[in-house]
Design a protein that fits this description.
The structure holds two protein chains of two kinds. Chain A is mainly alpha-helical. Chain A is built from twelve helices and no strands. In chain A, helix 1 (2-14) runs parallel beside helix 8 (143-171), helix 3 (35-64) packs across helix 4 and helix 4 packs across helix 5. Chain B is mainly alpha-helical. Chain B has a domain at 21-152. Chain B is built from nine helices and no strands. The chains are: A mainly alpha, B mainly alpha. Chains A and B meet through helix 2, helix 4, helix 7, helix 9 and helix 11 of A and helix 2, helix 4, helix 5 and helix 9 of B.
């Protein structure tokens, strides 16, 4: 239960899809002019992520990963089909989106009308594929956790687009320097929001520092640098005191990067 | 440009500045931001996208008359996914460290909106040669911005370019560091990528006021 809660808050705030990993930025920027449309797209993203991440988890577990085919018989145990994951994941997503569209249209025309054109758009939203790929690379253990991960990442994305849409509605009345109007100021606001969201980095480390540290250290030696963002979060968890600035963490990552490169 | 007519040359030169996929069309932002902390990663990403877009545009353009329009999205996704798998496997084989740095973002080329956008907007309606040029042009525009962001973030963030210590050694205090210069570690963090893009947009639009948007 505890790990569910932890994953839930981690995916919404710390590893927020938009602010930490920049997934789904295209639709985030394009559809955030009005709060009402942003809500529609956000709801669709939550829905599709919560469906496709568990589906792809099953695919990964029983078809793609190293030794996943062992259930077919011992002679299949050596196969590693993980190079096919991109094409299978995207096929699942495209099919699911189509299926969801048909089902929703049949059973709930009002929801269908409010999601409208957003559903088909979602097939090519990087947040959806990114959710599945992160699920794979972060090695999510159970189907329940995978569902949780999909749902909470979706909620995180929803929060982000809702926030920026609300800000953009207000900023229309402000006197922004002409060349920055529209896209430019949206980028900069998103950057500032992302800095704000970085402060959630310490949220899950309060209290039980010692056991986590060893855990993170082991993980760090195993996979020195899976990804810039993940490195950052891991480093932030490693910090002894939360009062230490994030800059220290960055420098550490920079040094790690250098050592890895060398 | 002897081989190319003026119209064809414009296909390449337009997306570089005035119709840049990132700063004007707002496509393909996701990957542009996430992997630009190092110049090397940006360059590899730019080259990968160039490969996928050039070839993908040609393939889609060759098939444009036989793709039923109802399932065209799935056909496009399959074409891109195949090309991306090739890129991913090549990276894993020859540049393993780098493919670790890029992690899922190589896979995310599939959903890079520039690629789907160009397929929809151009390759489905034009012949293979023009589609190829269009693909190359847009990927180059995308790569150009990526390299600019990567250049500034790596130079200001870790004082290196492509891993070479161009500003001197921060530990032995040589070069610029001797006079008290410090790296701005903040540039390596993800939010700064957004702000750097914001500044690029600012500079570009103040040079060319025709691009300024309504608020």
């Amino acid at each position: 239960m505890l790990e569910h809660i932890e994953l839930f808050f981690k995916s919404i705030f710390i590893d927020n899809m938009v602010f930490a990993t920049f997934l789904g930025m295209c639709s985030y920027l394009a559809v955030s002019k009005k709060v009402s449309t942003a809500v529609g797209l956000g709801a669709a993203v939550i829905f599709v992520l919560a469906v496709t991440v568990p589906m792809n988890w099953l695919l990964d577990q029983y078809l793609l990963r190293d030794g996943a085919l062992a259930w077919l018989g011992p002679e299949y145990a050596d196969y590693n089909l993980s190079f096919l994951s991109f094409i299978l994941f995207i096929a699942t997503i495209a099919t699911m989106v189509q299926l969801v569209e048909i089902v929703v249209e049949k059973f709930s025309p009002s929801l269908y009308n409010s999601l409208g054109i957003f559903l088909p758009l979602i097939a090519v939203n990087c947040a959806i594929l990114g959710g599945s790929l992160f699920m794979q690379s972060r090695d999510i253990q159970t189907l329940g956790l995978a569902f949780n991960y999909g749902l909470s990442s979706g909620i995180g994305w929803f929060l982000a687009i809702l926030a920026i849409a609300a800000i953009r509605e207000k900023i229309r009345y402000s006197n922004v320097p002409a060349p920055l109007r529209g896209l430019g100021i949206t980028f900069i606001i998103t950057g500032l929001m992302a800095i704000g969201f970085m402060s959630f980095g310490g949220m899950l480390t309060g209290g039980d520092e010692a056991p986590k540290q060893t855990e993170v250290a082991v993980a760090a030696t195993e996979a020195p640098k899976e990804n810039m963002q993940e490195g950052l979060t891991a480093d932030a968890t490693q910090q002894d005191k939360l009062t230490e600035t994030q800059l220290a963490a960055t420098e550490k990552v920079a040094q790690d990067t250098n050592t890895v490169n060398e | 440009m002897g081989i190319l007519s003026k119209k064809d040359a414009a296909l390449i030169s337009d997306p570089l500045l005035d119709n840049n996929p990132i700063t004007i069309q707002v496509l393909g932002i996701c990957s542009a931001l996430a992997i630009t902390a190092e110049l090397k990663a940006s360059i590899v990403m730019a080259v990968s996208v160039l490969f996928v877009m050039g070839l993908g545009n040609v393939v889609i353009s060759l098939m444009r008359n036989i793709i039923p329009s109802k399932i065209r999205i799935i056909v496009q996704l399959v074409v891109v996914a195949t090309l991306v798998i090739v890129v991913d496997q090549v990276l894993k084989a020859f540049a393993y460290e780098l493919s670790k740095t890029l992690s899922v973002f190589v896979g995310l080329i599939i959903t890079n909106c520039i690629i789907m956008g160009r397929f929809e907007a151009f390759a489905l309606a034009n012949g293979p040669k023009r589609s190829f040029l269009d693909g190359i042009g847009n990927a180059a525009g995308y790569g150009f911005i990526l390299v600019v962001i990567g250049f500034f973030r790596e130079l200001l963030g870790s004082g290196t370019l492509l891993g070479y210590k161009v500003l001197g050694d921060p530990i032995e205090k040589t070069g610029l560091y001797a006079i008290g210069y410090e790296n701005n570690g903040f540039m390596l963090l993800s939010p700064m990528a957004l702000i750097v893009v914001g500044i690029i947009i600012w500079v570009q639009r103040s040079k060319n006021p025709a691009l300024i948007e309504e608020n």
